[in-house]
Amino acid sequence: MMEGILRKAKRTAEQGNEVYLEVAREDFKKSCVFLYEKKRAFLRLMFAADERETGGEFKIYSVFSVPGKDRFYIVVLPVEEGSPTFPSITSSIPAAHWYEREIRDMFGLVPEGHPDPRRLIFHDSFPADSHPLRKDWSLSGMDKKEWGEGTAGKVPYRFMEVEGEGIYEIPVGPVHAGIIEPGHFRFSAVGETIFFLEPRLFYTHKGTEKHFEKIGFPEGVRLSERVSGTSSFSHSAAYCMAVEKAMGIEISENAKAARTLLLEFERLYNHIGDIGNMCAGTGFAVGYAKGALVKEELMQLNERITGHRYLRGMNVIGGVSKDIFRHRDDILSTAERATREYKEMMKLILGTVSHVERLENTGILSREIALKLGVTGVAARASGVNDDIRKSHPHLLYDKLLFEPHTMAKGDVFARMMIRAEEAECSLSMIDALLESNYRGDLTVGVRAIPPYASALGYAETPRGSVFYWVMSDKEGRPLRVKLRSPSFCNWPAVPFAVHGNIVPDFPLCNKSFNLSYSGCDM
Amino acid sequence: MEYLQFIIIIIFSPLIQGLIKKLKANMQGRVGPGVLQPYYDLIRLLRKDMVVSRVTSWIFKATPYIVFASTVSAAMIIPIITTRSSFGMMGDVIAVIYLFAAGRFFMALAGLDAGTAFGGEGSSREMTVSILVEPMMMLSIFTAAISAGSTNVARIAETQNLFYSPPHILALSAFVVAVVAETGRIPVDNPDTHLELTMIHEGMLLEYSGRYLALMEWAHYMKQMLLFTLAADIFFPIGIDSGGAPALIAASFGIYLCKMFLMACAMALIESARVKLRFFQLPSLLGGAFVLAFLSLLTYIMIGK
To answer: Of A92, A283, B106, B158, whose CB neighbour count within 10 A is largest?
Structure first.
């Protein structure tokens, strides 16, 4: 099946479950489309790397994998500095549209044939033709000042406009009434009905990927924990996995069990908190309070067993920093209490007909759109896309645990709530199962130096969806490139499709049902 | 003495608001702020500087005073602890409703005045809701007015008997829905939300700050207490004084505070038990209440008291 592509590839390399296929420019799009259309592979992430110090060229990587098969096909296209363009695949694979714009902003490599010529990451005051992820990037003092002030409109951004009788625009944000992160939403509405929505994000772009290159691999763990607060542990677990793979070390069974357990803890407290938060969207204060209560109990447990409510400081390269299994009794009793309270809460929520009624048929994301945009996680599964990184690419102890990804067909807010509810229950039973046996091995294994120009992919399923880290070392074994792709980056483009045709006052509810992170998207 | 009874509304209305908030918090498993918090909020706002948008006209600046004044005028008409009301002769329930409407009209204009999207949205939604609420409120009061033979609130309060007939119960149900809608509470509006896109009443106030906001908020508290008082006068007038003896007035005052406490409990209960309705389903709720009010009038005419 794959022979066609393999034959065309100039160079192939296989390491673990990653297959790198370096192709010529004219074969790039064909190979990607072949994987996407014929093999039904998902575009997991797409990024560029400045590898001019090795071969004098940039490289574009697009990572595909077929759900159910633990194998990543990574199509690699070298792009010469002299002609910084590459063929855009967005017209055939819509999921690539943000990745390609990101590559254009960050590296100045132009996707030829991309339907949207606007910048994605940078706002108006950022200078044109300045591409921060190039190794030789610098900013003049004046540019830096104007960028900091954010006033100069160097490259104006044009919002899409909807014309017609009775259509008016509602600009919302980036400063909101609640304490939430910044994001601008431009609604075009007919009366109360949303006709079109264009989100403008990246207000808090922190240059995280550039920052990863400046610090060493071990210090990067602390940075990856801070990309997105509520997914701290998943992010650092994926990052550690990538670095450990690049080092060629395998962590102990004990550390694997601890990571698996804490990943499920993170999923559990997030899902329960999210279900509660959706109640705030309908003004169901009792449900909201109940969700916050159960979440708080779980977060206090986090603090007792790891020393941090958001599970930070647990992951280190080579294992975990603390032995959480000595808190077995505490975990079991808290989990039991949480299960009881969580069940009560779901009974209350599902018994409140007026609440359920608001959720049903609101914010429908069709399976077709979810597939095309490469939506991930809860949002994808609620729209009938059976994709869970824990199942597709078993890592840690997930191949030993019995569970099935839950999917629902409808794709509305209610489906997203029920997927969370089912996954929370699943997490609870996984936690019980993990605590039944004893695990061998030390908390950490010895760390080795990373060989020059080694690369590896790390991944995890956060409460929102899949997160990917791709790391590559330079000739001294320090980070040359760290690419991170958070689930929010994939799912934000889907929100406008889900709210189309809904009424404006229902937007917060739709938005909460996705519960996307601004920080995790802006990076 | 009886001319000054409206001062009770001015003084106690923030307390009622604080009480509802506290009760709601307790029902939802939270501690909640103290019952005096609305007073602190008002004092804080009165001391604060104002930020007024440059594009606003005189309407924006006049509205807080108009809203506050119209609400105080309504308070003067409604009998609170004695039916020998302040301005008894002109104390007409229709006047009360239209005083509220005048305040709302200016509030909606002020929402539009600054030209922000949320203000306009709030105004448009408020008007949509009020079109449905006003006639329903009038109808539900008319049942009582017909049985009293007068639209004067004091006369209605004096002539109500203590036994409830079907028309009264129907009218009361409709009136409760009207009170919920007029005070901007769940299931019609969510007073505690920070989500601008879902706001109705709060949306119109978003541009206000400092002293103006204090006036608007205070007027809103008063309107809420007035509606409770109106409900007490029309449907539970038991214990209200009509003579003017100091001892009786004192007793009436005690009974009045009990009634207000019960109304606050009822509101907190409704808000904790219900979920905010989808905006386009409001007509079903309000239309349903209108039918109840209409039926109450019809049953009254057909079967009498």
So the answer is: A283
Interface contact B278-A355, CB threshold 8 A: no
For residue range B27-81, list pLDDT tens digits in order: 988 899 999 999 999 999 999 999 998 889 999 999 999 999 999 999 988 888 8
Taking CA atoms, B6 is separated from A110, A318, B138, B264, in Å, by: 72, 74, 22, 19
> Do residues A174 and A277 both lie within one domain?
no
**What whole-number distance in Å separates Cα of residue A38 and Cα of residue A53?**
36
Nearest CA in chain B to A356: B275
A289 touches chain B (CB under 8 A): yes
ipTM of the complex: 0.81
Best of B31, B123, B188, B198 to substitute, by most chain A Cβ atoms within 10 angstroms, is: B198
**A154 found inside a domain:** no
Residues of A in contact with B30 (CB under 8 A): 289
Q: Is the peptide bond before B187 cis (omega within 30 degrees of 0)?
A: yes
Same domain, A267 and A387: yes
Among A354, A503, A506, pick the best mutation site for testing chain B contact (most B Cβ within 10 A): A354
Tell whether A417 is covered by a domain.
Answer: yes
Q: How many domains does chain A have?
A: 3
| Residue located via tokens 């098969």 | A69
Range of the domain at A51: 3-118
CA distance B191 to chain A (A): 9
What tokens were used for B117?
Answer: 């999207």
**Is residue A434 located within the same domain as residue A465?**
yes
A303 & A371 share domain: yes
